[in-house]
Amino acid sequence: MKTKKRVLQRFEYRECDEFAAYLHEQSLAGWHFKGWHLGLIFEKGEPEDIYYQVEVFPKGKDQDMKPEDDTKEYVEYCEAAGWKFIDSQGKFCVFIREKEDAVPIVESKERFCNVKAAERGNWLRQYGIMFFMVVWHGALGWLASFENVVFENAWIFVCVVCLIASIVGVIEGIWLLGWAKQMKKQLGAGKIPEYRRKTRHNGIVRLFLILVLAAATVMLWIGNERMEFWTVIITLGCSLIIAVLAALLKPSRLSYDIFSWISGFAVIAICIFLVPAIFISNGRGRQAELGLEDIPFSLKDMRMLDVPEDVGGTHRESILGSKTSCYVTCEEDGSSNEKINFIHYDYIESDYQWVLERIWELNKENMKEASDCSEAWHALEAGQREGSYYIKYDDKLLKIYIGRPLSAEEIDAVCRKIGVA
Fold it and tell me: CB 3.0-4.6 Å disulfide test: which of 87, 228, 245, 288 passes with 154?
């Protein structure tokens, strides 16, 4: 016969009375709460009508896996008032009423302040990092390096997941403000607030965020972003392992902090160094060499001469478009000692006008005092400044850096190769 069971049930701090009622129901069925150990642990016994009280201890920490010294002081005070301590985790402390005339552990107003402060801290811990990530990556991408990161699915993945989580966090924060106002109103009317589970929206929110993360991770795989995919999988896997080990081992607050920092640095090291090293060693790094067949046009196409060429550069592609950044050199007379005729260009394609407009706007500073050459390039806009060209089309941008102005024949050759002539 089963004498012990583990229940993976979660309660928010604002549901402390719901938690106590759940433990009471279990005791009526003969299952008595013994503490936390990777879930709620119950032992089988005789059915009893046990009165549980679940309090939110303000000096507790969310990462506490067992009673700390300050919690033990709090427990001594409660036991003297007629309450038997069972266990604690996070800010939760679970008690059993031993004396019928046991006085309340805390007054209603103080209890409300404890629950509200715990909920506020929990909300900041859950969503604060998301808000920071949205601002950081948004500012970094939009203001500083948009032209590069917009063609990285990994950056889009982080932004989308963090943005959706932040929106959910804002909605959750508004809901909490309404909840706190309602509880305060009850206190003002002389009522004792009950901290019950009003809705199931917490479970729905978590399920929604998990689905968003899963969908975004699958998109990385579909988009052939293998390195980013495995980075996400390793990070999530390590985080899950850390959480399970902490729940099983129940380390002290200090040990948990040290363990978390070491584990965090280990995960970062794996994601930053090990995963990229494996992919690069297998020839799957993002900086793969480009060949003549991989670039939009070469010096051969412009000069219509069959001369040896050296090609290099990178190609980036995301769901928002692609960017090919390459350089080409060739030898005028076949000599390996003197390389001349060098061209470097960025070829950007996107079906999204706002992407092209933003990149064009960021390059406006480089186009100051540039002479208009739109007609020669058959372009919406085009400018030339010394040996640099900036050309804008409906679905593409072209930036060319070369040591001299291009002839009309060379411009026409480029236009034919990129399909705008």
Answer: 228
